[in-house]
From TrEMBL:
Organism: Christiangramia sabulilitoris
GO cellular component terms listed in the entry, alphabetical order: ribonuclease P complex
GO biological-process terms attached to the record: tRNA 5'-leader removal
GO MF term set: 3'-tRNA processing endoribonuclease activity; ribonuclease P activity; tRNA binding
Protein name as it appears in the record: Ribonuclease P protein component
Length: 122
């Protein structure tokens, strides 16, 4: 089981991010929201993933960065839930929607629920 979250798996393209928010579908599981869309990728099945914590909800950069690190780690540990039965390439954006900082176990439970819901829908 590959538990890396390398450069090729990160969502960085502005064009791709814009199309994600225009055409994408979303699933919520408090305190996370998953926005996803199918993408055209040359090299087989790829999962491009990004994380976001709005400045409007979490004011200090230190807390925002900690939450983003936790979200990336939780995804890295649990991405096997979607990569095993992925039929095409997708772009994911995980958005934090709570005003309070959540502990790792609550983030992990929410992420697992989102990834299972996504794999059932596809």
């Amino acid at each position: 089981m590959n538990q890396e979250f390398g450069k090729q798996e990160r969502l960085k393209s502005k064009k791709l991010i814009d199309s994600l928010f225009i055409e994408g579908k979303s699933i919520k599981s408090f305190p996370l929201k998953l926005v996803y869309t199918s993408i055209e990728e040359v090299e087989g099945r790829v999962l491009k993933t990004g994380v976001s914590v709005p400045k409007k909800l979490i004011k200090t950069a230190v807390k925002r960065n900690r939450i983003k690190r936790l979200m990336r780690e939780v995804f890295r540990k649990n991405k096997y839930l979607v990569t095993s039965d992925l039929s095409s390439s997708h772009a994911f954006m995980f958005i934090y929607i709570s005003r309070e900082e959540m502990p790792y176990d609550k983030l992990e439970a929410s992420m697992i629920k989102l990834l299972k819901n996504f794999s059932h829908k596809n």
